[in-house]
Amino acid sequence: MLAVERCTDAAGAQARRDTLGARGTFVAGGTALQLGWNGAAPDLTLVDVSALPAARGVTRHGDRLRIGAASRLESLRHDPAVRAGAPLLVSACGEIAAIGVRHLATLGGNVGWRYGDALAPLLVLDAGAELADGRVVPLLDVFTQDPLPLVVALWIDTRTARERSVFEKAGHRAAFSPSRLTLAIVDGPDGTRLAAVGAGLAARRLRAAERALQHGGLADACLADLGDPVRARLARRLIEGHLG
């Protein structure tokens, strides 16, 4: 039987999910969660985090932007602070699903799915993940944990908005089907950062490809990063097309 429980604070939500173990999961909009159900809803307890005060809203803290994980993707597209401080994320949000889905889907849900298109820009922006205990850790470190902890908010350095950035999504139909490859590029004074995600491809930084831009061998580097010849060729073409 599918059940829903609501918690009043982030620490309580994390503790409840920990107690439930494999029988529980976090939910906010629920759009990504349903993709894995294949028909009938599973025997699962959903810990609803959509109304957690700490997970809502967008605030500016000096050069950093704090985006609550319960923020709806469509609202982020139009938020003035996000548009000014994280335009690459805004570009990604506009390419995720249809507008009706974006009114329900949350940034935290896109992250928690592990395959969400927003992950590529978040990784190249070196986003931090605020956890239920208040710690902020590199978002990439969150994916070393299974199950994923509750991400309450994402932190982004707004100075990256001055760097050249690119978001590319390659699929059968750009917004309405899982992407074959979603690629994000940030080209700044300290070098180029690359990240990718896709259907069945967990989000990752393309470290070998980043090094290859300095030393050569991009084709082999993309294959080392992605492990799939088709995706590797696609990534190489996109990178070369934008960076030369």
From TrEMBL:
Protein's organism: Piscinibacter gummiphilus
GO molecular function term, any single one: oxidoreductase activity
Protein name as it appears in the record: Uncharacterized protein
Highest rank taxon of the organism: Bacteria
